[in-house]
């Protein structure tokens, strides 16, 4: 840690003085740190390397734009880490913290939410379960979970806010889980009429 701090501080001072090679080396080292941090945070939210690489670029641009604000007598690591955290948080907000589910992951989500024995096994089961949902929830779950639309595209399709899409999706999944649990337990829950 101290070794990295010394290397980075020395490289930044040289960069500010005009040493392009030192600056390129510093940015390469910072880029690796961003890839690890942003990759882990974005990965937990369901995003991949492409989104993490966008954060890498944003961090490098921010460091370049703000390099004069770093004070040579102060540690550079916390300064860089703060920029990485802020840019990663910005990316998560911008991306909506949730990747649109593909048809391959739809069953996985239902299996995770529902009891293990209540997994949806066949396409006909999916259609039957979806038909039990209210109209908006059915449309949103199908658009995100089966058609693979993004939250933004789904909001545009239905003329609702992205927040309303998230609410409808989560409610729809909860209802699907409840229906599947009822079937697994051998009880039939009253079907709610579609709105």
What is the topological layout?
Elements: H1 2-16, H2 20-44, H3 49-66, H4 77-95, H5 103-113, H6 123-131, H7 135-146, H8 151-158, H9 162-184
Helix pairs in contact: 1-2, 2-3, 2-4, 3-4, 5-9, 7-9, 8-9
Question: Care to describe what's here?
Answer:
Helix 2 packs across helix 4 (77-95). The protein is mainly α and 195 residues long. The longest helix has 25 residues, at 20-44. The protein has helices spanning 2-16, 20-44, 49-66, 77-95, 103-113, 123-131, 135-146, 151-158, 162-184. The model is unreliable at 97-124 and 188-195 (pLDDT under 50).
Let me know the average pLDDT: 77
Structural class: mainly alpha
Order of helices and strands: HHHHHHHHH
| Assembly level | single chain
The rounded distance between the terminal residues' Cα atoms is: 59 Å
The number of helical segments is 9
Strand content: under 5%
Helix content: over 70%
Radius of gyration: 24 Å
How many E strands?
0
Tell me about the largest β-sheet: none
Which word captures the global form?
A: elongated
Flag low-confidence runs. 97-124, 188-195
Brief rundown of the structure:
By secondary structure, the protein is an all-alpha fold.
Features:
9 helices, 0% strand, 195 residues, mainly alpha, disordered C terminus
